[in-house]
Design goal:
about 190 residues; 4 helices; mainly alpha
């Protein structure tokens, strides 16, 4: 409908004298229309051929390449995403196994250390018992030796005191017997 209207307008314009042609617009003069139409068809045909044969194929190939590149990139991204998910699952499994291994090693270490500490504790207790027994023997020997030493010292002190007080020297055997008798009575209080 539009094209019919345009055609009717063009025919009407050809049949009438155009006021613009007389005013100095030669492109509206009908005698130049044939050459203008020829050049118009020639220019637009050349332009059409250039665009359709040279530019459009390059643009289409660029668009196709871009679309293929985008598809390829999306496929690669999906592939890498799947690989990363697999690696993440492997990492989680490895991490879980490592945690279990750490717990196992920790428990084994605790058991070994507990056994080691227990054995060392028992060894130390045995050594302490030996030292205690040794100290008790030494103490009992010292007590025995100290009793005889105390008796000797007491005998000497008693004989010196008696000699200083009375001026006479008494029999050492009688002083020794008296000191031993007194020490036997009182020794049980201190032992």
């Amino acid at each position: 409908m539009k094209s019919l209207f345009c055609l009717a307008m063009a025919i009407g314009a050809i049949n009438q004298d155009l006021f613009a042609a007389e005013a100095g617009m030669p492109q509206l003069d009908p005698k130049y229309w044939a050459s203008q139409t020829f050049w118009l068809i020639l220019v637009f045909t050349a332009l059409y051929i250039l665009i359709s044969n040279f530019y459009l194929p390059k643009i289409k190939s660029n668009l196709d390449n871009r679309e293929n590149k985008i598809k390829e990139d999306l496929e690669n991204a999906n592939k890498f995403k799947k690989q990363s998910e697999v690696k993440l699952k492997e990492y989680e499994i490895i991490l879980e196994n490592a945690k279990k291994e750490v717990i196992k090693i920790n428990n084994e270490s605790k058991n070994i250390l507990t056994k080691d500490i227990q054995s060392k504790k028992e060894l130390m207790e045995k050594e302490i018992e030996k030292e205690i027994l040794k100290a008790q023997k030494e103490i009992s020997e010292l007590k025995k030796n100290s009793i005889s030493s105390i008796q000797d010292i007491s005998k000497n002190i008693a004989s010196n005191i008696i000699e200083n007080i009375s001026g006479d020297k008494l029999n050492e055997s009688s002083i020794k017997a008296t000191v031993e008798e007194v020490s036997k009575k009182n020794i049980n209080k201190y032992l």
